[in-house]
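Reply to thread "Modeling small-molecule complexes from scratch"

Following up on the discussion above, here's a worked example others can learn from. I took a protein sequence and the SMILES for zinc ion and predicted the complex. Inputs first:
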Amino acid sequence: MTNEPDQRGDHPAPRPTPQLMQCSSCGVDASSEPGGLAAARVTWTFGTERGRTVWTCPACSRRHARSMEGRLDSAWW
Ligand SMILES: [Zn+2]
């Protein structure tokens, strides 16, 4: 018999739920992605830039991560 409370005092802050989500980098519309906005809110990266919420699609997040690593790429060759 488990005594696990299903109501917790502190809920994690919900992510913003915009009506329109576009990648700040490539401009792709989240509603055109597989799963639509609901999936994009989970898979996309979001951050705040000058007080605005900005979204980045997974492909661009990867590309940005690579370009940052690119500074160390001499070991690859
Ligand atoms: Zn993108």
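What I'd highlight from this example: Residues 58-69 form the longest helix (12 residues). The chain has two helices and two strands. Questions welcome below.
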